[in-house]
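Example 3.
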Amino acid sequence: MARAATTSDVFNAIAEPQRRAILVLLRAGERPVTELAQELGMPQPGASKHLRVLREVGLVRDRKAGRQRLYGLDARGLRPVHEWTGGFEQFWTESFDRLDAYVQDLKQRRDEEQR
Amino acid sequence: MARAATTSDVFNAIAEPQRRAILVLLRAGERPVTELAQELGMPQPGASKHLRVLREVGLVRDRKAGRQRLYGLDARGLRPVHEWTGGFEQFWTESFDRLDAYVQDLKQRRDEEQR
DNA sequence: GAAGCATATACCCATATGGGCATGTGTTGG
DNA sequence: CCAACACATGCCCATATGGGTATATGCTTC
């Protein structure tokens, strides 16, 4: 089945570095495609494709402005990602890591001794 | 160039639903592969493959326990993701969304009138 | 050291990219 | 109405999956 379509969910959409870069740029405000492509140093078609993916997962919205099409950020979709990762916050706390490493170490030694 | 390897970074590793499920399960503590495979309703080879990816990006560590291999969570790698998405927090605040929607609406009307 | 259990790998496939390039489409201006 | 400009799409390709199945590896235990 290969990988699920990137357009299916936000996690997949932001797995692409260039797309994350686009989102960061859009934090500063709306931008036309060409400008984004230029700032990212990629050909315009490439930028359009990434923008399409972002649009399909709802992270970006577009608005026609004459000959241009301005893309704007709609970061609401990032909230679930933030919350999901936040569910692991207690596991990366420094104190916890140290304690955990210590426990792991003990287990390892114990197992090696028993072996 | 196709997509970058999933083993290259955490964003890519957690783009896979099954892998996210594995991480969630591991929050409860270490688990052997078979058990994970069973709980996820997937064949053992599949679980092993996902675990490998998670291990390569450092989200999981393994420890030999006799005949078994216990996988444990190392969520530190999720922190960057949490922080990156956190950088957009102001953009999904409800009040902001309303204001933004309002502004967008104004612009839209203005453009339509000018057209 | 043979048999068995727990995992990891090797393959084989269908599919979804992401990139580069050419081209279609819609809008603006003269 | 035509040329120019800003984008979106269509194609073609090399590659990286994720899944399923068969098989190699590692330890244990008898």
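The first strand of chain B starts at residue 31 and ends at 32. The helical segments of chain B are 10-13, 17-26, 33-40, 44-56, 78-86, 89-92, 94-114.
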